[in-house]
Write a structure and sequence with these properties.
By secondary structure, the chain is mainly α. It has a single domain (2-132), classed as Rna Polymerase Sigma Factor, Chain: A, CATH 1.10.1740. It is 80% helix and 0% strand. The longest helix is centred in the last third of the chain and has 42 residues, at 77-118. The protein is elongated, with a radius of gyration of 23 Å.
């Protein structure tokens, strides 16, 4: 995946690195225009959501801008972008998995509450209902 990511822009890399001075908005715009589609497709491949993939693109380029003075521009910009996109995508997948697990737990707890309600007096039922809802 990284190889195809790099191969698509290898001819543009020297120009990009030359433009990438620490405070250059033009360099940032150039890097964004050259690499946003690849970052998007890396994220989309795993997230299966256009909206989430676009959020990854936004996060990656916000991080690039925020850390532009600390990034070694002699190194591969493509590799840095790919790495940040990969980490961001994996974190989103983990968060989704955790959220899905929590939703499943709510369903289980709801079923448990319904079973309690059917076996309980009306006073307990109203107390449980008020507590959990």
């Amino acid at each position: 995946m990284l190889a195809s990511f790099q191969n698509q822009h290898s001819s543009q890399r020297p120009e990009t690195v030359h433009l990438a001075t620490p405070d250059s908005e033009f360099a940032f715009q150039s890097i964004y225009n050259q690499h946003r589609h690849c970052v998007y497709h890396v994220a989309l491949r795993y997230l299966k959501s256009a909206e989430s993939a676009q959020e990854v693109v936004q996060d990656v380029f916000i991080k690039l801008w925020a850390e532009r003075k600390n990034i070694n521009m002699d190194a591969s910009v493509e590799a840095w972008l790919y790495q940040v996109a990969k980490i961001n995508t994996l974190n989103r997948l983990k968060k989704t998995a955790t959220t899905t697990h929590l939703k499943q737990q709510v369903v289980v707890n709801t079923k448990w509450l319904k079973s309690i309600r059917s076996n309980c007096c009306s006073e307990c039922d109203s107390n449980i209902h008020e507590f959990y809802l």
